[in-house]
Design a protein that fits this description.
Length: 550
């Protein structure tokens, strides 16, 4: 490690400890010596000037907190001596010219994807099983279980056990010794070769707890989200079960699908249990229809597509004090590369944009978009305050323990995932990203609610940064995990795909790591590489009810 501390922005009045620092140690940085008055934990911050109560703490060049007491220079900033503070914000004030990164090394590259008739390209080809109401979750699960194993799709394992081989051998009169000697362990490569439908990447379920009860708006939002999944370019078709009497009626879903794509032509089968002779008949009919749909969907094969067809969702979860200076900015550079190549990126988690609202507002290409962004942010925070909370309550105990002591510190680092390009569109929850470039999507900061929203708005791949380790993914959008520190990568490399901790150690720069991430996206989008979240079957799906969730 070249340095013990880091100053993120020239205007900051704090330094970040890149390693554990001891009380009494003298830290020299940019020609100035700082004597530490206490131990400073790795990832935490100490002040470079003395603070009085009410003084503003600046990091990333923006206010991120306010001193609640006198803090001597060289002290660790904590939740006891600092409280959340962020600048007031308003509509668009100015827009600086964006200087796009050099993408010459990627300009001729393509990925092998699945073309859809609406012009979009999938990085995967999944069939969906969807309940319109929670009453159908069990039936959806039964259909998935019946189809998945028989068609060669194991769930959440690196291997599969070929019991059918034992059955065949037994029925052929094999001896006990022959059965014991039989090799029944199948690798992922063998499983893929043995699939009945080799061009279908899997059968995914979107079980949930909604569709009835609650408010009618809850069911309408759910249908809107489900329509986003069905029209996502990574989806080949869907089988949908309706009970019949629920709030989330098929007509609402059909309307939402048509709104997104008037010429929608994917195979979709909808069955209503209350019109079926029996549960067994319902499941049998669903299996038959799904099988016929898979026959059609399997005809679609991967073909070269320009990188402009990438729609990259940006997410962070289990963040630490290094996330905002390694993994997030590296993802931000990858996002800028995608935008410069004509692709689309989606930055979500509105509670984690607190403190950088004005910067994002200024980056909006029109006044109208700026007003929509500030309105969504303001109303969301007001809802949280109305129930006794607020954006300032966003940091989790794990965040705080690892140095993210205010929401503004966490947010300023989280926003780095969005890179530096202009904001081309602002989306409310479930709205589809249609404009190339950077899109802002209103979702909670909750990891799974946010990734669920990203795929519902069209993301065909998701970049997920983590500093503490978060074992989650998405049913249809391959999710690539990036660690902020090497210690986490070494400890959880069965979950993490990319290590951005090499930025902290000085082995990489934000730019080189960003390019590595883009190379990883291309390989995964082409089906040449399987991210750990897909390999482990981390298919998490949690719709947002639009209540207060941070």
């Amino acid at each position: 490690m070249k340095n013990k501390v880091l100053k993120v922005h020239k205007d900051d009045n704090v330094l970040v400890a890149l390693t554990n620092l001891k009380k009494g140690e003298v830290i020299s940085f940019e020609g100035i010596d700082y004597e530490l008055l206490e131990d400073i934990k790795q990832k935490h911050k100490f002040n470079t000037v003395a603070f009085e109560a009410g003084d503003i703490i600046v990091m990333y060049g923006v206010p991120v907190g306010k001193a609640v007491q006198s803090i001597s220079k060289g002290s660790m900033l904590t939740t006891f001596n600092v409280k959340h503070y962020a600048n007031e914000y308003g509509n668009k004030k100015e827009q600086k010219e964006w200087i796009a990164p050099d993408v010459s090394k990627f300009s001729s590259k393509t990925f092998n994807g699945f073309y859809r008739t609406d012009g979009k390209v999938g990085t995967a080809n999944y069939w969906l099983l969807i309940p319109l109401v929670f009453c159908e979750n069990r039936n959806i699960g039964a259909i998935a279980e019946i189809l998945s194993e028989e068609l060669g799709y194991s769930k959440g394992r690196d291997y599969n056990i070929n019991v059918k081989s034992l059955v065949d051998q037994y029925q052929s009169g094999a001896s006990i010794d022959d059965l014991v000697a039989e090799d029944i362990l199948m690798t992922p490569e063998q499983q893929k070769r043995n699939r009945v439908f080799p061009n279908i990447d899997g059968i995914k379920i979107l079980t949930h707890e909604g569709g009835c009860g609650g408010t009618r708006m809850d069911s309408e939002v759910l249908c809107s989200l489900l329509a986003g999944y069905i029209t996502n370019p990574n989806v080949a078709g869907a089988t949908i079960l309706s009970l019949g009497c629920q709030n989330a009626q098929p007509e609402i879903l059909e309307k939402e699908i048509t709104k997104r794509n008037p010429d929608f032509d994917k195979p979709v089968f909808l069955l209503e249990q209350q019109k079926s002779k029996s549960e067994a008949d319902l499941i049998a009919e669903a299996v038959k229809k799904t099988f016929t749909g898979l026959i059609e969907a399997n005809k679609n094969e991967r073909k070269p597509a320009p990188l402009s067809k990438l729609i990259v969702g940006l997410e962070c979860g289990g963040s630490d004090g290094f996330s905002g200076i390694s993994a997030n900015p590296a993802v931000g550079h990858a996002a800028d590369l995608v935008v410069a190549l004509g692709g689309t990126v989606i930055l979500s988690e509105f509670p984690e944009l607190c403190g950088v609202e004005q910067e994002l507002s200024d980056r909006c290409i029109t006044e109208e978009l700026s007003e929509k962004f500030t309105s969504l942010m303001t109303n969301y925070n007001k809802q949280a305050i109305a129930v006794g909370s607020g954006f300032d309550a966003n940091p989790s105990p794990g965040n705080i323990k690892d140095g993210l002591i205010t929401d503004a510190i966490k947010s300023a680092g989280a926003a780095k995932k969005g890179g530096t390009s202009p904001v081309m569109d602002v989306l409310d929850y479930t709205e589809t990203a249609e404009k190339p470039g950077l899109n802002l999507l209103c979702t909670p900061g909750n990891d799974v609610e946010s990734t669920t929203g990203l795929a519902g708005s069209g993301a065909n791949v998701i970049l997920f940064t983590t500093g503490l380790g978060t074992p989650t993914g998405n049913p249809i959008a391959p999710t690539i995990k990036i660690s902020s520190n090497t210690e986490l990568y070494n400890r959880m490399n069965d979950v993490i795909d990319v290590n951005a901790g090499t930025i902290i150690s000085g082995e990489d720069t934000i730019e080189t790591k960003g390019e590595e991430i883009l190379e990883k996206i291309i390989a995964i989008a082409s089906g040449e590489l399987v991210p750990h979240a897909v390999r482990l079957g981390q298919d998490d799906f949690i719709p947002w009810k639009r209540g207060v969730s941070l």
